[in-house]
Amino acid sequence: MLKKICVVAVVLILSACGSQPADKRFKGAGDFDKVEAAKTRVSLGLTYLKNGSFSQAKFNLDRALEFDPLSGQANFAMAFYYQQVDEVTRAQEYYKQAIDYSNNDPDVLNSYGAFLCKQGDYEQAKRYFLRAVDDKRYVSTAQTYENLAICAQTQGKIEEAIAYFDSALNHQPTRASSLLFVSQLYMQTSQFDAAKRSLFKYERSAGVSKESLWLSFQVAQGQNDVRAAVEYSELLRTLYPSYPNTAKALEHIGKFQANMAITQKIRPDNNARSQVGDIPASSTITMDDIATSNAANPASQNESNLASESTQMTQIPAVDIPDAVATQLRQFHIVQAKENLYRISLKYNVKIRKLLEWNNLEDASSIRIGTKLWVKEPI
What we know:
The protein is mainly alpha-helical. It has helices spanning 2-19, 34-50, 54-67, 72-84, 88-101, 106-118, 122-133, 141-154, 158-171, 176-188, 192-206, 210-222, 226-239, 244-256, 287-292, 323-328, 341-348, 352-358, and strands at 332-334, 372-374. Helices cover 59% and strands 2% of the residues. The chain has a two-stranded antiparallel sheet. α11 packs antiparallel against α12. It is elongated and about 75 Å long. Residues 1-27, 261-284 and 298-329 have low confidence and may be disordered.
């Protein structure tokens, strides 16, 4: 009985305190901020969604909308939730509300454009992508132009795709993914010189990757440059022996053997094989994650061979090449650890001035590990 009386007394005291005018210096329950509470629920909901707890995600996002029904972020997050569970109609409804309530936030416009592209509605997707880049406040213009370019490519609009990749590169000239994508399109449309130029820029920016070597091999084939094709195939075999396109390159090179004399065969060094690790995923989803969740590939995987190889286009680690291989590759050299332009010039008996000229380098300090240098005048 005493315990019950004490509990009742505490409740009465708390009730009395709640009825008294609050001290302005004290922020208590009477100052409950629904807007901040909604933001907290959005963050929780996205975290649960990231971890695959869809029911908990939905619960928290529902609560967020209860606290602040006109929140652009909450509606945006709910649109993303319905997109993940393939409820297209509801996702579309919440995207439109998010756009209205966020005052045409360009991140929301970009994400909705990517969503529409996945539904195959290119014209509407383009409309929202262009609305996003038209906002002078927008800082991810290059990303959105790249999204639009990939979307155009999936619809077979190759010229438009190239134009939009160019727009992306105008805003971010060293954007590795756009450089690699547009190189692929140039190669597919037999614009081999343009492909070669964009691959050169890509390798200066991101270093050599299995995708760039495969494209370089294809470009060399297109230009009937057998020697370069052989060199690229050997690099693929040495550095990326398990890459599916390495076998394709070696198969093609086998057809050339009868028509050319190869005085010395380059053998792969197993110690040079590199592993490209996966980038760890964040444990939570943020609003920025939603805005960029479709960025690498707004189109479906089975519709685009180009987009299917986009998962490791940025931050590709440089690779070391065995001395035996590097010495025999007379057209170009890939910079290794502890090398400088002076050592490379001695190795290939070429003047530093020529290396700077052939590779468009400002000075000898412009090279880094993974940079591909032409050691003879490019054709």
